[in-house]
Amino acid sequence: xxxxxxxxxxxxxxxxxxxxxxxxxxxxxxxxxxxxxxxxxxxxxxxxxxxxxxxxxxxxxxxxxxxxxxxxxxxxxxxxxxxxxxxxxxxxxxxxxxxxxxxxxxxxxxxxxxxxxxxxxxxxxxxxxxxxxxxxxxxxxxxxxx
Length: 146
Description:
By secondary structure, the chain is α+β, with helices and mostly antiparallel strands. Helices cover 21% and strands 12% of the residues.
């Protein structure tokens, strides 16, 4: 059985979504609340900009080229002080794209996350298991076969 949940971030975290900047067209950022940021300024102070640059530069070159397809969301946690956040990386993919498969592998290998969430249609659930799905059909089996 699966548990459903809302994909929308909590209101306090909504402003923490950081899209990968479009390096060819120049950075476009917004301040909290959706208002355009002042010309020449990013989200937050210089430290925030340095942190944003650090996570972007930590990505493999192929992922840095995927403008708009990858985002980092910072969610506050309850475990500690004000600076404790959970970093969530969102990667837009296509079900049938070899490039998307490569991008997902690059992202997980480079960031080494503690947890990975997948969104799959019912027909592809069998890819995550070694046996047939509850629907009765085997959608390709598991393992590293492709």
